[in-house]
């Protein structure tokens, strides 16, 4: 029990973790399930483990820091063992307007680096970058097209065949 408590406190120093991450760490260190369960529940009671706050902070930091879309954020939180209702609550903080504004900023930042490439290659490269960050194909293509048009590229004959 004491060892489980010490492991959890050490892991929580520095960076917040989900209950599942701590449970996995205790299992890996062969802490008996009953002791682990008791320590984790106690830590949750006193607020040292709070998956809801973890999910909110994760969404805030990863969206603003890395520009990740709701879909990518939800996937990351799933891999960290956050409950799906908490994930839904956390990612719903981002509305589609905020998501689209971030997509535009990401494209603006990368646009210059693609100058000189042919239009199709630019479209694919920029839309691909957004797709890897979890943006839908439709939004990615729309945002990239608008950015290219504002730059004076002809895009009306680009079909919706995808990338």
TrEMBL record:
<comment type="function">
    <text>Modulates RecA activity.</text>
</comment>
<dbReference type="InterPro" id="IPR036388">
    <property type="entry name" value="WH-like_DNA-bd_sf"/>
</dbReference>
<dbReference type="Pfam" id="PF21981">
    <property type="entry name" value="RecX_HTH3"/>
</dbReference>
<dbReference type="GO" id="GO:0005737">
    <property type="term" value="C:cytoplasm"/>
</dbReference>
<protein>
    <recommendedName>
        <fullName>Regulatory protein RecX</fullName>
    </recommendedName>
</protein>
<comment type="similarity">
    <text>Belongs to the RecX family.</text>
</comment>
<feature type="domain" description="RecX first three-helical">
    <location>
        <begin position="4"/>
        <end position="42"/>
    </location>
</feature>
<feature type="domain" description="RecX third three-helical">
    <location>
        <begin position="99"/>
        <end position="143"/>
    </location>
</feature>
<dbReference type="Pfam" id="PF21982">
    <property type="entry name" value="RecX_HTH1"/>
</dbReference>
<feature type="domain" description="RecX second three-helical">
    <location>
        <begin position="50"/>
        <end position="90"/>
    </location>
</feature>
<dbReference type="InterPro" id="IPR053924">
    <property type="entry name" value="RecX_HTH_2nd"/>
</dbReference>
<dbReference type="Pfam" id="PF02631">
    <property type="entry name" value="RecX_HTH2"/>
</dbReference>
<dbReference type="GO" id="GO:0006282">
    <property type="term" value="P:regulation of DNA repair"/>
</dbReference>
<dbReference type="InterPro" id="IPR053925">
    <property type="entry name" value="RecX_HTH_3rd"/>
</dbReference>
<dbReference type="InterPro" id="IPR053926">
    <property type="entry name" value="RecX_HTH_1st"/>
</dbReference>
<dbReference type="InterPro" id="IPR003783">
    <property type="entry name" value="Regulatory_RecX"/>
</dbReference>
<keyword id="KW-0963">Cytoplasm</keyword>
């Amino acid at each position: 029990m004491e060892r489980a408590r010490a492991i959890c406190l050490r892991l929580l120093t520095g960076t917040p973790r989900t209950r599942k991450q701590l449970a996995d760490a205790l299992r890996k260190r062969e802490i008996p399930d009953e002791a682990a369960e008791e320590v984790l529940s106690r830590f949750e009671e006193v607020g040292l483990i709070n998956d809801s706050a973890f999910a909110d902070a994760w969404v805030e930091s990863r969206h603003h820091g890395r520009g990740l879309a709701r879909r990518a954020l939800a996937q990351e939180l799933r891999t960290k063992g956050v409950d799906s209702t908490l994930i839904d609550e956390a990612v719903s903080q981002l509305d589609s307007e905020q998501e689209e504004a971030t997509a535009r900023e990401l494209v603006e930042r990368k646009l210059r680096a693609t100058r000189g490439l042919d239009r199709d290659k630019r479209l694919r490269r920029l839309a691909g970058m957004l797709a890897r960050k979890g943006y839908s194909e439709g939004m990615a293509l729309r945002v990239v097209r608008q950015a290219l048009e504002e730059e004076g590229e002809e895009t009306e004959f680009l079909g919706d065949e995808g990338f």
